[in-house]
Design goal:
Layout: E1 3-7, H1 12-23, E2 27-32, E3 51-55, H2 61-68, E4 73-76, H3 83-88, H4 90-97, H5 99-110, E5 115-121, H6 149-169, E6 173-178, E7 181-182, H7 193-202, E8 207-210, E9 216-218, E10 220-221, H8 222-234, E11 241-245, E12 250-252, H9 253-264, E13 270-273, H10 275-279, H11 294-300, H12 308-322
Helix pairs in contact: 1-8, 2-5, 4-6, 5-6, 7-9, 7-12, 9-12
Bound molecules: nicotinamide-adenine-dinucleotide.
Nicotinamide-adenine-dinucleotide (NAD) is lined by residues 8, 10-14, 31-37, 57-59, 77-81, 96, 119, 121, 178, 180-181.
């Protein structure tokens, strides 16, 4: 049993992680400002005696210090997320994703914290040209005049900071680079493709694909991702390392759209729009994003393997219930 802080614990991944930690008898403090998360995400555990929910921002350093006080394990998930939000407000991205991470690492190094999990992202690889990305590969960001790279850069700085705290103070830092995590409670408002496609299809379509849909992605189910995070943190040997966390089953966005349509209503139309209509003139995307998960498997003893078919069934069932269909 450990005292855990989960920043962003009312978010999509954070709420699943919070449930998992409580089920293992840990004490959990959630700190979340509900900017992209939802209060209702914690409904299943709201009255749990080991859960404390604190409402507020990680940018409030007094509150952050109070929430971190006494924590033995910190899971830092709160961040400005979503391609759309990041493209529209790069300043908020940088301010939310960099300074509070430094502050939290400082509190952790001064306190009683034995493990610090940092939620990073496949976006740190930027436009990496390789087939299956490995943790020690180089980073390929686009120009600073394109705001979307602010997200990956801010998370890369977080990684540098976390590894520096590990090196200088011996803090047990584990970094997880999430690759397209999907599942119940994920919302489509901020550019997440699976909930967006499913919701459009359930409402009768059309399903809108950006560009020609040839972009390649891998989708991992949140329950398996959370299992991997927990296993990594439980394994002390993961400290000081970076891990890709995601599925390695590649699918194009057009294939994804077709799979969603086949499950909901084959008559639904696919509409193609250029990126600039979705994200503004300065947008550039990543063509192929596939992780190598060998290191994850070595240290966590598992990797996300659920088929896209099962993942979509789960997301569709959840969305139908949410929309009362
Ligand atoms: N979902 C994915 O596919 C994915 C991929 C790569 C990385 N990630 C990372 O995983 C983490 C969780 O993402 P998610 O998909 O669950 O998104 P999410 O938006 O559901 O979760 C983020 C949570 O952080 C909270 N938050 C944001 N700013 C805050 C602030 N200033 N103070 C307090 N709380 C704040 C939000 O309200 C939300 O509950 C993020 O760090 C994100 O960068 C997610």
């Amino acid at each position: 049993m450990a005292k855990c802080l989960v920043t962003g614990g009312a978010g999509f991944i954070g709420s699943h992680l919070t449930e998992r930690l409580l089920s293992q008898n840990h004490e959990v403090v959630v700190l979340d400002n509900l900017s992209t998360g939802r209060d209702s995400n914690l409904d299943a555990v709201r009255d749990h005696p080991n859960l404390t929910i604190r409402s507020g921002s990680i940018t409030d350093s007094v509150l952050l210090g109070e929430a971190a006080h006494g924590a033995e394990v910190i899971y830092h998930l709160a961040a400005a997320v979503g391609v759309k939000l990041v493209a529209e407000d790069p300043l908020r991205t940088i301010e939310t994703n960099i300074y509070p991470t430094d502050q939290l690492l400082r509190f952790a190094a001064q306190g009683n914290v034995r493990k610090f999990f940092l939620a990073s992202t496949s976006e740190v690889y930027g436009k990496h040209p390789g087939d299956a990305w490995v943790e020690d590969d180089g980073l390929y960001f686009g120009p600073t005049s394109r705001p979307r790279w602010a997200y990956g850069c801010s998370k890369a700085i977080d990684e540098f900071l976390a590894l520096a705290y590990h090196q200088k103070y011996g803090l047990g830092v584990t970094i997880g680079r999430f690759f397209n995590v999907v599942g119940p409670r994920q919302v489509g408002n901020y550019g997440m493709v699976v909930p967006r496609f499913v919701e459009s299809a359930l409402k009768g379509g059309p399903v809108t694909v950006y560009d020609d849909g040839s972009q390649v992605r891998c989708f991992g189910h949140v329950s398996e991702v959370v299992d991997c995070v927990y296993s990594l943190v439980e394994n002390d040997a993961s400290a000081g390392s970076v891990f890709n966390i995601g599925s390695n089953q590649a699918v194009s966005i057009l294939e994804l759209a077709q799979a969603v349509i086949d499950k909901i209503d084959p008559d639904i139309e696919i509409r193609f729009i250029p990126y600039n209509e979705a994200y503004g003139a300065d947008f550039e995307d990543v063509q192929r994003r596939v992780p190598n998960t060998d290191r994850l498997y070595e240290f966590a003893g598992q990797r996300p393997a659920m088929t896209l078919d099962r993942i979509l069934d789960d997301v569709i069932a959840w969305k139908k219930a949410e929309l009362s269909l």
